[in-house]
């Protein structure tokens, strides 16, 4: 992400060391980049429009009503409704190593437009899709599609000043909203235990969670458990959760490996990879960096400070 912010650093003005804000505007969105250069606690932020907040560098501790406090790292995002307060701690921010985060505000009319299309064309079994981004708070981790879109949006906001800027941003915003809707479907599916008993996809998710460290889980095996052909299962799974079965399994294993790293700082990376259900350390390292935007060793160092 640092190379994406190079243009931003050339033009931004630093007026405060805590949550210094630079704003970029477009027709249907507003991008705010925040930078904190010193240790701080209990910093409060609210927005009068729904936002997706994403970590760029460093670490925050987030306190949001209705959710347990959580550590916030690069590669993670939070979808926040209008006027919802977030209270933030900055344990690692330094003058020469700032903590950076973005807050992307999306016009409610654009959200409504895309949500209406999504609700019309997409049907998730046993799930009411009449969902609005600005009524829910969600902590998103390991969502590669959302992360790539945010990177593209940051680049276009900060680098593209020609007449095509708003058109490009509009297309990317539409895709981002759809990705968030798919993520919400995933969140509901994973959190509603009753749904596990009602859907074949839910049953498969339950199986994955109960056998997460099993190195022999394959798409063919999961398709058989869902009583579907492999091709139909793969399509059904991705349409429902917005992610392929393999990517979902890997994301859950990476999530588990992060818990291991935080809980057992003396474990070697190879031991963590094995305990998280990966066959070899090299593949684990590649998947971790792909999803977390840093290596397991870098993540281990960041949580040990």
Tally of DSSP helical segments: 12
Helix vs. strand class: alpha+beta
Shape: globular
Order of helices and strands: HEEEEEEEEEHEHHHHHHHHHH
Q: On the 0-100 scale, what is the average pLDDT? A: 82
Strand arrangement, largest sheet?
A: 1-2-9-4-7-10
Residue share in helix: 40-55%
What's the N-to-C terminus distance? 21 Å
Count of extended strands: 10
Unreliable parts:
124-129, 192-198
Gyration radius, to the nearest Å? 20 Å
Strand content: 15-25%
- Major sheet: size, sense and barrel closure? 6 strands, antiparallel
Task: Give a verbal description of the structure.
- With about 300 residues, the protein is of the alpha+beta class.
- The chain has 12 helices and 10 strands.
- The chain has a 6-stranded antiparallel β-sheet. Strands 3-8-5-6 form a 4-stranded antiparallel β-sheet, with no helix packed on it.
- Helix 7 crosses helix 8 (about 230-240).
- The radius of gyration is 20 Å and the shape is globular.
- It starts with 5 loop residues before the first helix and ends with a helix.
Brief summary:
This protein has helices at residues 6-11, 108-121, 144-159, 165-191, 193-196, 200-210, 219-225, 230-241, 245-263, 269-275, 281-292, 296-304, and strands at 20-25, 29-36, 40-45, 51-57, 60-64, 70-72, 77-80, 86-90, 99-106, 138-140. It is α+β, with helices and mostly antiparallel strands and 305 residues long.
